[in-house]
Amino acid sequence: MFDRYEAGEQAILVHVNFSDEDEREDLEELKMLVSSAGVNAVATITGSRVSPHPKYFVGAGKAEEIAELVKSAQADVIIFNHALSPAQERNLEMLCEARVLDRTTLILDIFAQRARTHEGKLQVELAQLRHMSTRLIRGWTHLERQKGGIGLRGPGETQLETDRRLLRARIKQIQQRLEKVGKQREQGRRARQRAELPTVSLAGYTNAGKSTLFNRITESKVYAADQLFATLDPTLRKIDIEDVGKVILADTVGFIRHLPHDLVAAFKATLTETREAQLLLHVIDCSDERMAENVEQVEVVLDEIGAGDIPFLQVYNKVDQHPDMSPRIERDDQGLPQKVWVSALTGEGLPLLFKAISERLVGDMVNHTLRLPPSEGRLRSRLYQLDCVAGERLDDEGNIVVDIRLDAIAWQRLDKQFDHSLESFIAQCE
Q: Which range, of 76-85, 135-144, 252-261, 353-362, averages the lowest pLDDT?
């Protein structure tokens, strides 16, 4: 139904500087996005405006300049570093006689190239269809004609109406499939919660080094590359943290400024891993000149997806690129770790990161010694499932004496699961 450009085409990049801070985009980031999409940028046109032009987004003179450059450079596509309205895209395409893409469409195309799993592909298609549903009219000249001819006369539905109806049906179908996938994810999440396994989720700006850090910590081989949005599909692995035990580490999609809302909505199931984590590791590229802006943008997206109140630990990555930086932990006034400097590439500072995660997850830990009679085999088995047994021995009466260590919340949950109060087993040891 839709014509998507093929990777490797010749592109003209258009970037406009606005006086309003909220309207501004980063030209270097656009070049990275274009490179990630596999497009060859042959020229870049920049300009300044107070506000977007209603017809062409840029001024009429600048639009003519773009049209002339497209012909002289024999470009196939024009990529704007901004969000365009359907009318602006249509007007620019008619003037320049070339395909016009805005920032949102470019990001969606990169996501379409990167998606590997069935769920990821469905999520990207849903986001693309929602975005394209407002742009059906611009690529076709015949869409407003009614069907005619033998066998086609009747209600007079236009081609545009037909396409919109088919589009709505496809969107509904994808949403139903994603709901099914979401229920499957929820089952796995509930199973982890029953096992009392805390989740630590990696979050951060795209290309901050999350997947490289994930691979270093878990000894996995998740795809990692020096490009934007190398990771789309969430990956979960178990790791061991000292004084905590088994922990689930989740690698998720990176964020970017002005992340398309359709994309956030489509990736709702994936981002649940971030929203329901006990601790977020906010990975930050300390070698990036826009570090402060990127941190702010990640916090904005975290608020948008409902993860703004989750405790987080800032992980400043790529210290190997700074000779004056060294791995270290920075703490608050209460001595709680707030920032850790590491290098995911070389492994420097990882022991400090594990130490900081342990301190942040431990919270209110409880240490108890329980005296269990032989009839409490079910409770003993549950303690081993929680991986909280530090030691076990038999007393002279044949009872099992178990030393346990787990967090206070897990202890309270465990206490509610059994008929006898666990406090009674503690009292027998005193």
A: 135-144
Domain 196-362 falls under CATH 3.40.50.300: yes
Q: Report the binding-site residues for Mg(2+).
A: 211, 231
Binding residues for GTP: 204-211, 229-233, 251-254, 317-320, 343-345
10-101 has CATH 3.40.1440.60 classification: no
The CATH number assigned to the domain with range 365-425 reads 3.30.70
CA quadruple 147, 148, 150, 155: dihedral, nearest 10: 60
Q: Please state, for a pLDDT cut of 70, what percent of the chain lies above it.
A: 78
pTM, two decimal places: 0.67
Q: Residue ranges per domain, the chain? A: 10-101, 196-362, 365-425
List the binding residues. 204-211, 229-233, 251-254, 317-320, 343-345
Domain 10-101 and domain 196-362, same fold? Reply is: yes
